[in-house]
Amino acid sequence: MTPPGPAALRLTLALCLLTVARSHADHGPGLPEEEEERGDDTATVTTGEDEGDPEDLEVFYPTRQWQPLLPGRAVPAGSHVRLNLQTGEREAKLQDEEPGPHRPKERRQGPRLGKMDLGPGAYTSQDLKHALARFKEGLELGTPKDDQARRAEVRRRFRPIEELKREFEALNLHLETDLQIMVRLIDKFNSSGATLGDKVAALKDLEYYVHQVDNARDLLTFGGLQLVMGELNSTEPVLKEHAAFVLGAALSSNPKVQVEAIEGGALQKLLLLLATEQPLAVKKKALFALSSLLRHFPHAQLRFLKLGGLQALRNLARDEATRVLAVRVVTLLHDLLAEKLSAEEEASASEVGAEAREKAAQYARVPLVAGLVEQGWCAVVAGLLGRQPDHDPREKVLRALGLLLDFCRDAYRHDSGLGATLARLRDEYSRLAARERRRDRRDGDREVEEEEEEEEAGYFQEMLSTIRLLLRRLD
Ligand SMILES: *[C@@H]1O[C@H](CO)[C@@H](O)[C@H](O)[C@H]1NC(C)=O
Ligand SMILES: *[C@@H]1O[C@H](CO)[C@@H](O)[C@H](O)[C@H]1NC(C)=O
User: Fold this and answer.
1) The domain containing residue 268 runs over which residues?
2) Distances (CA, A) of 62 to 78, 91, 125, 373
3) Which of 34, 104, 249, 392 could share a disulfide with 4, CB 3.0–4.6 Å?
4) What is the pLDDT of residues 172-208, one digit of tens each?
5) Ligand 1 mutation target, pool 179, 199, 222, 227, most atoms within 8 A of CB
6) Is the C-beta atom of 268 inside 6 A of ligand 2?
7) Residue 59 CA from chain centroid, whole number
8) Which of 226, 233, 269 has most ligand 2 atoms within 8 Å of its beta carbon, as the pocket-test mutant?
9) Would 362 be classed as within a structural domain?
10) Subunit details for this protein (predicted)?
11) CA 294 to each of CA 141, 290, 343: distance values in angstroms, whole numbers, following the listed order
12) Is the full-model pTM beyond 0.70?
């Protein structure tokens, strides 16, 4: 069973980061007892097609505790990142929350399902530099209250990096920088003697490093990323797959890499992978890389439309062999549409700067809505809803329907299948929400100190209100 949550919330407005992290904690795999409880509620739900897919875990959801940052996770803006020198693991957590009283309120207002990424590149090199600088100083910035304790804890567990370096040097060891490691990996990859296994291993390692914005840029500067892009048309499917994976990770919220990639022809190569006969694993990673390339990059989105990208995606969503990717495709289109609408909305506010206007002008040149409507996406998305047995994909399709509704209203009003599916889901979530409320009350009695949690609408209650809202808007 796939717990609802993580991927649905991928790329959420940086300002809503706290909301995301909390929502995730509420429903994601982070809280085993939650999951077990939910188990009763979802006993009838069959296993999702996406189960165990690494992409669903790609974004790391920081909490206020340090957590190991596994390879293949992207770090959202505002996270602290550090290297635990004892374990050698990277760890990350949320910035310490400002104790503003409005914050928890704010996050309860708009329904969570409506939230989307409105911000520019979600993680900046600045954030990572700050995190690194703090790490190098050997101290953590905490809220005044626990600052002392945390510093003491940090001092107890970690020594300053300079001290460690001296010790390493004394032992004739030295810490390899990320850049040195990447150069070594690319050399290994590029060496004439490398076996297929060596190459795949090098790509897997690289994928870990390029999540850091600066590393991805460094990889560009010495030609490493270009080499990786060249593998997108390798004759070996496994190399295409992993090259796309590295590229997708490097592109995530990294405008400089996005520009280089599009100039280097990555878009055409990715679309070719999506439009031609390829193993599913290759298509999956190509779709991931395509998503990273297009997000927050209107110029790439325009090229994508001109190159017939929407057709390629529609075939992907419709073909039997690649249907499992349909929800991802719809999520991508939802996000692109949301970006565009929010850029335009932002620019229509009374006081806006030149930058917001320019951004809106760029998005205005992307004929995404027309493309979606002309190419029958209203029906594709509506048809997808009834086929999702799991909550998380349903949530994604519902969000897409919510955005498309304004443009697809006529089609949806006459779509009796959609009406019936929504009514069925409304009934199902009414039952689940009622059970959830009872359980919340029970827990509320037990743990009075966690009032905050008590007043929060549960996941199923939010699903229910989303479905009701859609039904009302269709009336
Ligand atoms: C890969 O190897 C070729 C030939 O050996 C060399 O010309 C090229 O510069 C290498 N590329 C990188 C990025 O190291
Ligand atoms: C990949 O495409 C480039 C041009 O885009 C071409 O030069 C290269 O030979 C191709 N590689 C393979 C393995 O087909």
Assistant:
1) 160-294
2) 9, 9, 17, 37
3) 392
4) 655 678 888 999 999 999 999 999 999 999 999 999 9
5) 227
6) no
7) 5
8) 233
9) no
10) Interacts with HSPA5.
11) 35, 6, 15
12) no
